[in-house]
Amino acid sequence: MGLALMYGPAALAQQASDGANTATPADSAAKAKPKKKGSEAEKPVQNLTGVTVTGVRASLQSAQQLKQNADQIVDSVTAVDIGALPDRSVTETLQRISGVTIDHFMARNDPDHFSAEGSGVMIRGMTQVRGELNGRDVFSANSGRGLSFEDVPAELMAGVDVYKNPSAEIIEGGIGGTVNLRTRLPFDSPGRVIGFTGGVNEGDFAKKSKPSASFLYSNVWKTENHGEFGALFDVAFSELATRSDGIQMEPYVRRNDAAVLKGTNFANVYVPGGADWRTLDFQRRRIGLAGALQWRPNKDLELTSQVLRSDYRMQWDEFGGIFNDTSNNVHPAGGGTFNYDSNGVFQSGTLASDSWRGNLTTDGVRFMADRRYATQRTITTDWSNSLKYNINDQMVLYADAQFVKSTSQSLDFTVFDATYLPGVTLNVPGGSKPTITSDPASYATNPANYFWSAAMDHHERNKGLERALRLDLEYNFEDSKWLRYVKFGVRATSRTELNKNNGYNWGVVSDNWAAIDSPSGLADLATYLPGMSSLYAYSNFFRGNASMPPQLYFPSDKLVRDYHYAYQQLHAFGSATGWAPRDIYRKQDINDQSEKTKSAYGVLYFGNDDALGVPVDGNVGIRLVRTDVTASGYGQFPDLTTSGVDPSLKAMYYGQYFPLNFSGHYKNALPSFNLRFKFTDSLQWRLAASRAMSRPDFTQLQPYLQMGATLTSDNTAVTKWNGSAGNPNLKPMRANQYDTALEWYFAPTGQLYATLFYKDVRDYIANQTRTETYNGQPFEVTRPYNMSKGRIRGGELGYQQFFDFLPGWLKGFGVQANFTYVDSKGGTNSATDPYSNTTVTGVVLPLEGLSKRSYNLVGMYEYGDWSMRLAWNWRSRYLLTASDVATKLPTWSDDYGQLDGSIMYRLNKNVQVGLQTNNLTNSTTKVLMGPTSYADGTVDHRLYNRGWFINDRRYELVMRASF
């Protein structure tokens, strides 16, 4: 930033010396209409003094012009070269923008499974991000509302825009912000364009080479009598294989029994149940097709038809050594002692357990060998048609029709075998990642010491459809000192969501409490299906920087990749009441909803160059939205027919269903205001205020109520009536948001900006447990509710510059940097004691996904035929989920940074080759858990270490060509 301040005037002088190279708008630009896609104002300047504008420099210049000339606060990443977004996925590209962060887990509420490419885009800490494709709706069929950005091929993108405080003409739905993915159109270029990319990528952990390729053809034909025609075809294909290793601690439990207190003076100690270790091999294939036709029969009429189809397939295979004993029954082996720190937190010890063992006499600690195989395929298709008609010199009509369809199907299947490892010693030195050993180590290599324990299948089948119509009218004022133009528009949508999710269907095969006819009551691997298991070696686990049992017996590929075959094999000897596949979808598994929206907006654009002493422009508008929702579902009472309760209760509660149908609507008025002062051609100040809304996810709206009853140990009386449900009465989250930004554009690729923002969030959604009465019986039901209000505030700083003032080849150096600070207040969530399922209220947690600090630091070099980039991205600790699906505890992702890079060489004006890299620093993702709530109302506010994950360093050889 100091260099920018020191050399900015020199850069401006250089810029002024060649008027053809001026990137800032002329004074007359303030009176122009907004820039249309493909207009001259958006085309990058082609020359700098002594520097040819290509590659990274041209993309940065294009993105800077979009930001500087926009009518609202926006940040962009563009790809002037075909297939040349700076990262190999849309998600990874987005994290380079100030205020945008991503997760590195497949789902925030399941931080046991790592995602190398990232997921879960957040803007200024808000997860309610709206995704658009070319300014229109787009979504993935995943029970949510937004787009899974990892589903979309980055190679198809011309650019990505992030709107953080949008004007009224932007479609509603993104309270955090709106991400617009832009694809190319034929009329973007004057004639024929051919481009292709190719590459081979490999991770040093997965050690599997995977290809990628894309091809684009675009052309424009001019006819004598029928105007101009344009056609574009773009196809992209890529595969990726990654491996991630994870080490995890089981939750720490407050204990005061004599066995764990032995040798201490503590009243209470905190003992983990054990440790887990897992390797996950992930593969994905992404195929994208984009096509566009344009026709301009005359200067007043333009017709466009666009199609995009994204086909995303992934599979992952996990080998997990998972602690499977009872935490409260773990104690020092052989009457020994555990070692604790000064706060009574476990440090090391040899574990034993007095959990019930059935016919077994071992005191070893139980572990599962968890072999899990998951597949998913998501297909999203968008077909859009638009019209632009110049009615006269002052009026322009826009019309748009869109059809979106997204389907997703997934299967998740796990087969478990189990063993009781003897002599397990757990060491957690100084809070670092644990080491775990078993003595004798040879015990784990004998299949007779394992037994088939359980299996679990899970199915999802989702389908989303939307039809949208939009009509806009623009009127340009002539000879007005203040009024520039006004836009009015109406839009109507009809969306249906049919989501089927049959839960996780776990069932026993053999166990101490589900014995079969064998000497031990268990189905050991040496006797039963001996060919369906094999010894798996954790090769180079955690790159050799961890100590875990090196080998375990796991179910075979054939067994886990065909769950029908697995049932035939396991059912032949397993428990008669054990696991059976659940291929059907029950009433509670089906979420069928429809939603219709109607909206109208008006925006007035104004500006004056002289009245206030400096040029000023802006817009003021309002968007009115009505949302109509309908949903049909069921409630289900508990089934007490097999219990020993009073016959009158059995007659009242026998698992019967009752209908739950809902229809309703809500209205929202969303005003917006944007104002810009242009102190000079390069220095401007923006003010923005708006109201935004974000509708609840379809899973939160599901009209289903599952009711249950907890019985006494002898099954003769009910001790607790409870339930869980969705809430179709939810209203959207709303926010009044304010931004101010000071922006200095001191060179065509040089900028310095500072932004302050404030969001007043209302009706945020969180799960709460409240008393509801059915049939005269009070039930404690947990469901999502609209809560009161919260506050988000913060700021962003950004800087970008190539050092063109340096001599010779040194002028090729450049830097990008941005920093974001976000603070929140007002969110209070309930927490649950994971050991008694007792809800403890009043545990204050921040909003999920919100890092207080994040930054990007990018070093660039582009000179002659060389282009290089090193990009460091970092974010501070944030709350992943208020209730992890495994531990039921609040779970956090700790501070994390990653270094990526690329180097490209231009062979000639058409072809360049290079290397792109990810995770050069071999970064470790660390997960924390806590606070821990207990049934007596006390809360342990410490954050304990939950997990450590590492994944590949990735390398890709790439070639790009365009003609």
Residues in β-strands, percent: over 45%
Q: Compute the average pLDDT.
A: 88
Unreliable spans: 1-52
Shape: globular
How many individual helices? Answer: 8
Helix share of residues?
under 10%
Radius of gyration: 30 Å
Structural class: mainly beta
Mind explaining what this structure looks like?
By secondary structure, the protein is mainly beta. Helix content is 7%, strand content 55%. The chain is built from eight helices and 53 strands. The protein has a 22-stranded antiparallel β-barrel. Strands 3-8-9-6-7 form a five-stranded mixed sheet. It is globular and about 95 Å long. The protein starts with a helix and ends with a strand. 47% of the residues are buried. The N terminus is likely disordered. It is found in: Cell outer membrane. Belongs to the TonB-dependent receptor family.
Main features:
single chain; 963 residues; mainly beta; 22-stranded antiparallel beta barrel; 5-stranded mixed beta sheet; 7% helix; 55% strand; disordered N terminus; Plug_dom_sf
Give a nutshell description of this structure:
With 963 residues, this protein is mainly beta.
